[in-house]
Amino acid sequence: MKFSELGLSQNILDSITTHGYVEATPIQEKTIPLTLSGKDVIGQAQTGTGKTAAFGLPILENIDLDNKNIQAVIVSPTRELAIQTADELKKLGQDKRVDVQVVFGGADIRRQIQNLKSHPQILVGTPGRLLDHINRKTVKIDHVKTLVLDEADEMLNMGFLDDIESIIKNTPAERQTLLFSATMPPAIKRIGVKFMTNPEHIQIEAKELTTDLVDQYFVRMRENEKFDTMTRILDVQAPKLAIVFGRTKRRVEELSRGLEARGYRAAGLHGDLTQQMRSRVLAQFKSHEINILVATDVAARGLDVKDVSHVYNFDIPQDPESYVHRIGRTGRAGAAGVSVTFVAPNEMDYLRAVEDLTKKRMTALQPASLQDARIGKIKNATSEVHKIVKTTDISEIQSEVDKLINQYSSEQLAGALLASVADLEKQNTPVEITRERPLPRRRNGNGSRNGGGRGGDRRSNGGGYRGGNRGNHSGRERRGNSERRFGDYKRRDGRSTDRRSSSNTGASRQKREFTVREKD
Ligand code: ADP
Ligand code: MG
């Protein structure tokens, strides 16, 4: 469907055209008219299908430029996503001249306060920093017409729920509320609906939750073989841009260092890094300066990086929804992708849970042999050599070049160049990855699976779901945020999120068992 049939004004349509969008995606087609009419909407569609514009366009349409108040607030789980969303809205609101500002933790608040003086009509932000501004009275959201929770299931998890509630309290009761995500577990949806008025739930019935454009593989192997197996597969598959997911921040650190030590251009992204570092890493990845980004689930939620060709799940995610979001980093906007998930034998039940959710079987992939990996590395090095030859200016080094030519055959020189670029020795650099406690057995954790149907229980006692993995992730992200910590953050019972993530104490394992997807 054309955007012009959706009831948008010409200046918005002009920006859409400039932006290069021709046809509306299904989620845009279904939700834009509803949102324009003022209804509360839950929008659920595969990752990478344009949910940002789906909520963004009607918001932009309804902005009154003569009104100096903040008219729409979009809450995002990470700073990177907040920035990305603000950028998209700025572009789409360019011709209408809508002022969009973004606030997030870890950045100078005074500068943000300065920027806010321009009276933006739309504000995008992470929960902690938004609240901080609200409490300082540098942001007033009492005239907000529309509130969006992007990645709503993440936002309504324990890690963020209190902040979200506080933010909502500062908005008018008659506001429009929009929830968007690719996944919406029923228990979470029930929490969300409490903040809404007669919401319409639009779910794009993609036959599968994950796109057909992504070939999904799994490799079954022992935990201590994972790293070597992964690097060999990396050599064979030679991804243009890859995201490697690790379960904890420690994992992400170790994996990125290990990959670097073996000669890959890799860097880590997680919530304990400074904002400056996070921005740098993401910029390096987007400019292909590095081609492997190692990330935690939350750090990569919603990120839209062009040309991500491969996703590697070094650790299988604990809850199947995370899998959907992870592999949604590739196969975006019609592009193709590959995903490989590494699974220890005792984690096979988690693999099945993912397959149950995505309704798709993953294909077993044979681990590559050392020989395959070497061949792969040489092949990659050969294309690198072509590039080097094309871009090298030998005029300045002519005399040394002449000496080498007189001394060696071209075969020797080419061989040496290739070997040096391939740097095969690095392939053998020993890398230690600290062992993580394996995930609790799903079967034994039956309380969780069966308990799934009792979403109501879960909500009332809260702790099970809330204290679990997802909240854990958010908490982990947040810890690094240096965002204001309010008293109730301590509600995490002093269980340091780090401790919980890197060592499974009995208690945390208990909790974790509640995080598996419920079935109702
Ligand atoms: P989601 O939030 O559903 O994961 P995004 O909003 O991040 O997806 O959009 C994914 C990509 O698709 C972005 O690069 C966005 O610019 C692009 N996109 C969005 N809508 C359209 C459209 N109608 N036509 C073409 N590309 C689009
Ligand atoms: Mg999105």
Mind explaining what this structure looks like?
It is globular and about 80 Å long. It is built from 24 helices and 14 strands. The strands form two sheets. The chain has a seven-stranded parallel sheet, with helices on both faces. The protein folds into two domains: 3-204, P-loop containing nucleotide triphosphate hydrolases (Rossmann fold, 3-Layer(aba) Sandwich), CATH 3.40.50; 208-436, P-loop containing nucleotide triphosphate hydrolases (Rossmann fold), CATH 3.40.50.300. The chain has helices spanning 10-18, 26-36, 51-62, 79-92, 109-116, 127-136, 152-155, 158-169, 186-193, 226-237, 249-261, 275-286, 297-300, 320-327, 348-358, 370-391, 398-407, 410-422, 446-451, 455-461, 463-466, 469-479, 497-502, 506-512; strands at residues 41-44, 72-75, 100-103, 122-125, 146-150, 176-181, 200-203, 214-220, 242-245, 266-269, 292-295, 310-313, 337-343, 363-364. 45% of the residues lie in helices and 12% in strands. The two termini are 34 Å apart. The chain has 520 residues and is of the alpha/beta class. It binds adenosine-5'-diphosphate and magnesium ion (MG).
